[in-house]
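We modelled the chain as a single entity of 118 amino acids. Its sequence is:
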Amino acid sequence: MLPEAASTLPKKERLNGKKDISALLAGGKWGSVGCLRYCSKPNALEYSRIVVSVPKRLFKRAVKRNLLKRRMREAYRTSKQLLGACPQDILFQYISPEIAELQEIRLSVETILKKLAK
């Protein structure tokens, strides 16, 4: 059984490259919701791109950082349709010192996407 196309996260939807990330950090709008801080900037593409970050100073163990990054990507993947037709480059940064459950992260991501869709 193939996954539905709307709920996938292909490589083209991941923001990478020093130039693109620097442009996002320099010219993006910042905000925070729950356990996440975000930076967003409209892009000229037909799709949105994301990058997720979990600081090493909060979680020394890579296993915990990777768990949180997986949860953030999963939350975005399942709710990206909330953005509608306004493509953006988005940085999700985890800021809480505790490991949050997937539902809490999903709620934060959905709130962020609804704010950005306006």
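As a brief sanity check on the tokenised model: Residues 10 and 100 are 25 Å apart (CA to CA). The two ends are 35 Å apart (CA to CA).
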